[in-house]
Each structure stands twice: as structure tokens, then as C-alpha cells.
Amino acid sequence: MGAADIVPGVSGGTIALITGIYEELIDSLRSFTPQNFKLIFSGRIKSFWKAINGNFLVAVVLGIGTSLVSLARVVLYMLHTHPVVTWSFFFGLIVVSTISVLKTIRKTTMPVFIGFGAGVVIAYLITISAAVQTPDDLWFIFVCGAVAICAMILPGISGSFILLLMGKYEYILSALNGFKVAVLAVFASGAVIGLLSFSHFLSWLLRKYRDVTVALLAGFMCGSLNKVWPWKVQVNTANGEVWPWSMEKFNDHSLTLTEKNYFPPDFEQVTGVDANLYWGIAAAIIAIAVYMTIETIGRKMEAKK
What we know:
Elements: H1 2-6, H2 12-18, H3 22-30, H4 34-41, H5 45-51, H6 54-69, H7 71-81, H8 83-103, H9 110-127, H10 138-152, H11 159-165, H12 169-177, H13 181-208, H14 210-223, H15 225-228, E1 232-236, E2 242-244, H16 247-250, E3 257-261, H17 264-271, H18 277-304
Antiparallel strand pairs: 1-2, 1-3
Helix pairs in contact: 3-13, 4-5, 7-8, 8-14, 8-18, 9-14, 10-11, 10-13, 13-14
């Protein structure tokens, strides 16, 4: 989840769905209630820990933290040096996981179709939105933390991409790399409050309208495919110059860029650069194999439980 959230366009929530921990994660976050906190003040620490599913949450948080510290550099390096291969991997992962998530819907009804369609449209519109200039004030950093964390637990809606739209993606990454305590503390505070409040709503939806909600989440994943399409170019709107997608240009705020997707042959014709088609296909196949392996392990663990 941590590695996925680093990539603008990929959601940690997608990985949670893929690994089969999504509903348990949401329910665990929802368990942070005043009633459970009373257990602490009455000295019933073990009861509180069990009520919030503490072991599970610690494992998830440690995994995300470890990934942010270690895998973040690997993912960013791959985006810098091998963007087509990296996007292909995530594209294959999201395609196969979307199909798998749709299979968990128990009954296909009109509301389910509407939920899936709405998810696709909403996620697609988010992927084509343009970033805006925003202030660096701490109150806005707090808002960014609250909004981005909600997106991070929604499959298909990338928290890092939401940060990009809010004009704070590079700012927060720089704060993370430079360990700017004040900025990180305010951002984390917003994230905690946003996460705990939004998880209650999402858990309620999953309990009351599970199939429609799952269809909506799968729609989010499907709609996000526009953002992770491997063969995309960046267009300088000032002069119409076109080049293959580049992380360096992505981070250059002096440029006003738009992105455009192409099929591999058209990509080569427009950019004059090798599309790396076979490497891209191989990366997507590896992603599918990784997913199927994780799903198989997950089923065995669930059966063992």
C-alpha cells in the first residue's frame, strides 16, 4: 500500500482490495470510537487493543511505513528510468484486480451497474483534472492530509494524485525527504482525523449496501486506468512540444503540461522513441502473476482461519 501510494495514479486502497484486507481495514479504523476509548481510562487496555484490532493495524501501519522509507525510492527510480515498464506493471495489476473485485459481487442489479458506471466516470474525471496553485500555510496542509488520506483508502483514486491536484505532491515529498517535522506533523494530524471520520461512513456503506459499494469501488479502479496507461506523452501547452512521459518534466512546475495516451505504434510515431512494447507486456504479465499468487495465498489463509 505504501509503495502504491507513492505513485500518482495508483491507490493504496487498490492494494488493500487485492490482498483481501480492505473490509477488515475499514472496520478496524471505524472501531476508534469514544466507547472503545473509555476502555483505556477504565484500565482495560487488552480489551481496547482487541476492540480496535490492534495487531492488524500495527502490521498495516508498519508495512506502509517501511515501504515509504525503502520502496519509495525504488518506485520513484523506476518512474524516472523505466516509466513504460512501471506503468505497465500497475496497469496489469489494476485490470486483473478490478475483474476479481467484480466477481465478489453477490447479485447483479441495476443499482450495481449504476454504481460501477458512476465510479468509472468519477475516477476518469479526476484523472483528467488539472493541478492548481495553492498556499503552503499549515491549515491547508492539514486539509490536504485529510482529503488525500480519504482518497488513499478508496481503490482507484490515488491519494498522491489528489495531492498533485491540490498542488502539494512535491511539497509533501520534499518535507518527507527533508524530515520537516512541523509540516509532517500537521499533515499527519489531518490524515488521522480524515481517516477516522471517513472510515465510519465507508464501513456503513459496506454493511448496508455492500454490492453497490463494491461496484462503485471497482468502478474507481477501472476509471483510474486512464491515468496509468503506459504509453502516454506530455504536451507542453505553451508551444505544443511533445515527449514521452517523464518524471523530471512532471516535477517541473515551470511547464504547463497535459497528458495524452497513445497505442504503442502511434506512441513511437509521435515521439520517435521505442515503445518498449514487449517489456511493457512482460511487466503487465508479471503483475497479473503477482496478483494471482497473492490471491491464492489469501484464500488459503482465509480457509485456515
